[in-house]
Amino acid sequence: MTISTITETPANPAGAFGLAPIDIPKTLPEAALNYALAGIKVFRVRRNKTPYGNCFLCRQTIDDKPNPRYDGHRPEDCRCHVDTCHAHWAATTDPDTVRRWWAEEPDANIGAPCRLNGWAVIDIDPRNGGHRSYVAVEEHFGVLPGTAMQITGGDGLHLLYRSPGDISLPGAPFPGIEIKHNGYILLAPSVHSSGYRYQWPADGRFRHPETEWPQVLLPRTRKGA
């Protein structure tokens, strides 16, 4: 997908905030470990995007019925994270855990929680009109600042910005565009359902986003609120 106004921020040779760009191996286990060693929280995701783990005690429902043994614990407090329960809440930078996860499931995709990693991400899906929506957004608000980007396996784009913190962002403000903040994204070289891989452009290295979330996309405070 090509949108002429979308640009990637020129790389700071030292990397964002002194964090060097990360070389990303082509194999999923090695790539997951490199992300973790660089301080990026990751977790494993099935090719159909369902999480691994989610043991009996951690499921609120079983066959669409309330699970009588679910104790109502908060996902972030779960003791089953070692089994990847509760999806992105299990994300970790612990290299031993990451090695074990991908030794058990070497074909698992690499998930990364956005907010927990300090990111907010614009996910542009051209199959649902995301490219047209993005053009309309820039026609209305002006060209958005360049930032780190990833090409998705569905021929879309992830635009990675720094998280605005505790501010709540809309999930799907425009057709074909999602804002990933409390959720997660897949990281290269994860495999899309189309069979194509996610990839970082240019030299294929991951760069921590340096650009703040665009002010024009922050929710407006209503008068009297």
Task: Please explain how this structure is put together.
The structure is a single chain. The model is unreliable at 221-225 (pLDDT under 50). A hairpin with a 5-residue loop joins β6 (148-151) and β7. The chain has a four-stranded antiparallel β-sheet. 14% of the residues lie in helices and 16% in strands. The protein has helices spanning 28-37, 95-104, 130-141; strands spanning 43-45, 61-62, 65-66, 109-113, 119-124, 148-151, 157-162, 177-180, 184-187. It has one domain (16-214). The chain is globular, with a radius of gyration of 18 Å. The protein is an alpha+beta fold and 225 residues long.
Key attributes of the depicted protein:
3 helices, 225 residues, globular, disordered C terminus, alpha+beta, three-stranded antiparallel beta sheet, four-stranded antiparallel beta sheet, single chain
